[in-house]
């Protein structure tokens, strides 16, 4: 089972388009995850027992919702959200439609990563900020973020890599991207060349993401 490079050249426009669709899906869902998952993760942390905004009801409700969504396999979540996807984008197929379910999966995933990152902070630092009269917003902005930013960057990296895998699965239901290309050409047409190429593209892409994430994390890590 080798690679027919002439065949790869012929399919290059399709490969380029598919990779662009994958980037499009990941960009949208990552942006949504950052906008909603970051504050959600902070809320999960600061409302916990013993913290400065302790609220067991809020913590329990948010924790239940996050755990519920995370417990649903992505392929099932993708199908379950088709009515919502139609409502938002008007079409259950294509990269924009797949971005809806990708975002729904990414938000709780990233929120838990943010919460875990914040739990790594020395409680003494938070207590010291409270002792000098810092407001909750000041603690979040001037203590939590600076202390956890390196871990959060690593969490962003992990989220992006997970989104790459999820976006490939979205191709099963016509979501577009590299996964859709692999299904249409590699699986349905028994095209081993395109299967190998798509796997190589995904591996290289993930390695680049991991390298960039590790590099940025080390740069901003003040410890």
UniProtKB/TrEMBL annotation:
The chain crosses the membrane at residues 22-46, 58-84, 96-114, 152-173, 194-213. Signal peptide: none annotated. It is found in: Cell membrane. Belongs to the binding-protein-dependent transport system permease family. CysTW subfamily. The keyword rRNA-binding does not apply. One of its GO terms (biological process) is D-methionine transmembrane transport. GO terms for cellular component: plasma membrane. Keywords: Cell membrane, Membrane, Transmembrane, Transmembrane helix, Transport. It comes from the Bacteria. This is D-methionine transport system permease protein. Residues 19-212 form the ABC transmembrane type-1 domain. The keyword Chaperone does not apply. CDD domains: TM_PBP2. It comes from Sporosarcina limicola. It is a multi-pass membrane protein. Pfam families: BPD_transp_1.
